[in-house]
């Protein structure tokens, strides 16, 4: 599996049909995790630079982690798209791909010097993101 970075609104919009079908097929997804909701949020409230990570196994979509990087209180902050008015912000991940995603995300964050703080509110109880370790 590998992570792909999407950093433009056009590329994120192009992913929307595949992303939407993936989220709708996931048994635990909510409307707040659909691209229809998140792209609308980005259009009206987004700032900074998109930094959405897509997990793929070959060409198969296995997860989408929609984020953006912006400056907040003098720190470069990685924030989930939808923050502030969205009830559930957890990434949708294929069943069985959760551990691989967390491992790849940990490596990505450890090797990406631009961010300083993560703001990930409204995660579901038991979110896989809680398994991430603080940067050393």
Describe this structure in words.
By secondary structure, the protein is of the alpha+beta class. Helices cover 31% and strands 26% of the residues. The chain contains three helices and eight strands. It has helices at 9-25, 35-45, 98-111; strands spanning 2-6, 49-50, 52-57, 60-65, 67-72, 75-80, 92-93, 117-119. Strand 3 and strand 4 form a beta hairpin. The longest helix has 17 residues, at 9-25. It is globular, with a radius of gyration of 14 Å. The model has no long low-confidence stretch (mean pLDDT 91).
Q: What is the rounded distance between the termini?
A: 25 Å
Percentage of residues in strands: 25-35%
- Uncertain residue ranges: none
Helix count equals 3
Order of helices and strands: EHHEEEEEEHE
- Strands side by side in the biggest sheet: 1-3-4-7
Major sheet attributes: 4 strands, antiparallel
Shape: globular
Give the overall average pLDDT.
91
């Amino acid at each position: 599996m590998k992570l792909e970075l999407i950093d433009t609104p056009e590329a994120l919009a192009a992913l929307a049909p595949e992303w939407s079908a993936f989220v709708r097929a996931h048994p635990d997804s909510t409307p707040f995790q659909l691209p229809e909701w998140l792209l609308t949020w980005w259009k009206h409230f987004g700032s900074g630079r998109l930094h959405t990570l897509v997990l793929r196994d070959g060409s198969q979509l296995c997860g989408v982690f929609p984020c953006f990087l912006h400056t907040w209180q003098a720190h470069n902050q990685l924030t989930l798209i939808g923050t502030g008015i969205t009830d559930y912000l957890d990434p949708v991940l294929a069943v069985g791909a959760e551990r691989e995603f967390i491992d790849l995300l940990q490596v990505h964050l450890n090797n990406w010097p631009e961010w300083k703080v993560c703001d990930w509110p409204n995660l579901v109880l038991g979110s896989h993101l809680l398994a991430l370790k603080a940067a050393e």
